[in-house]
């Protein structure tokens, strides 16, 4: 395009534009998505995803657009310290705009967990000794979350496997306080603020 390198820009400087920031979600070229593998079975590095149920691998943003067009809600299954290094608000907002409604992980980075709740994403934590490997997940599964959400309560993650098998996995709801429950149930911190504002005016 003829643009000199010193005039290149970054996602961070455009974080006020929701379309740009949304597209930047999971755009890290060093990302390892365990649903995308090489022929030898190793995890393929890059901003890639596998769209289900077709099983087609494509760029992450294209996969997100595909699911958004279907209005198909998403869940992320993650390892320990999910969100580490992603404490900015957009790291959570981009996830929510991509259609992610819940994240089940072995653990969460403190600030990112709070930001997820503020964006209306439900954080779920596996019990010790349970993870994506022990559950033998391959990305073809669909999920339900069952139970009434109260602070740090036990919920059930229902896994529906492609072969018809159903597995019920106990998880901890990482809405840690009553206020976080209210924020999540409202749909996020802005929605919660709007509720309080409208209720105050009505009074």
Describe this entry's structure for a reader.
By secondary structure, the protein is of the alpha+beta class. It contains six helices and ten strands. The protein has helices spanning 18-24, 60-70, 89-97, 110-118, 178-186, 189-202; strands at residues 32-37, 43-45, 48-51, 56-59, 74-77, 100-105, 122-126, 142-146, 154-160, 166-173. The chain has a six-stranded mixed sheet with strand order 5-6-7-10-9-8. Helix 3 (89-97) links the parallel strand 5 (74-77) and strand 6. Helix 1 crosses helix 3 (89-97). The protein is globular. The mean pLDDT is 91. It comes from Neisseria gonorrhoeae. Its EC number is 4.2.1.3. Residues 2-128 form the Aconitase A/isopropylmalate dehydratase small subunit swivel domain.
Question: What's the topology here?
Answer:
Blueprint: H1 18-24, E1 32-37, E2 43-45, E3 48-51, E4 56-59, H2 60-70, E5 74-77, H3 89-97, E6 100-105, H4 110-118, E7 122-126, E8 142-146, E9 154-160, E10 166-173, H5 178-186, H6 189-202
Parallel strand pairs: 5-6, 6-7
Antiparallel strand pairs: 1-2, 3-4, 7-10, 8-9, 9-10
Pfam family, one: Aconitase_C
Keywords: Lyase
EC number: 4.2.1.3
What's the gist of this structure?
With 203 residues, the chain is an alpha+beta fold. It has helices spanning 18-24, 60-70, 89-97, 110-118, 178-186, 189-202; strands spanning 32-37, 43-45, 48-51, 56-59, 74-77, 100-105, 122-126, 142-146, 154-160, 166-173. Strands 5-6-7-10-9-8 form a six-stranded mixed β-sheet. Strands 1-2 form a two-stranded antiparallel ribbon. It has a two-stranded antiparallel sheet with strand order 3-4.
């Amino acid at each position: 395009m003829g643009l000199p390198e010193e005039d290149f820009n970054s996602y961070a400087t455009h974080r006020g534009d929701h379309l740009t920031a949304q597209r930047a979600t999971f755009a890290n070229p060093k990302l390892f998505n365990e649903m995308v593998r090489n022929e030898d079975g190793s995890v393929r590095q890059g901003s890639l995803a596998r769209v289900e149920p077709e099983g087609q691998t494509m760029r992450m943003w294209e996969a997100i657009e595909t699911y958004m067009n279907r209005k198909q809600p998403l869940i992320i299954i993650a390892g320990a310290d999910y969100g580490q290094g992603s404490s900015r608000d957009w790291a959570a907002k981009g996830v929510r705009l991509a259609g992610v409604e819940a994240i089940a992980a072995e653990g969460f980075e403190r600030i990112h967990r709070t930001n997820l709740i503020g964006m209306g994403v439900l954080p779920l934590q596996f019990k010790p000794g349970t993870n994506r490997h022990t559950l033998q997940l391959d990305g073809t599964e669909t999920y339900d979350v069952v139970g009434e959400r109260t602070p740090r309560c036990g919920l059930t993650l229902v896994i529906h496997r492609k072969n018809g098998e159903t597995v019920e996995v106990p998880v901890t709801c990482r809405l840690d306080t009553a206020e976080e429950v209210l924020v999540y149930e409202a749909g996020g911190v802005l929605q919660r603020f709007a509720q309080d504002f409208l209720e105050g005016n009505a009074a």
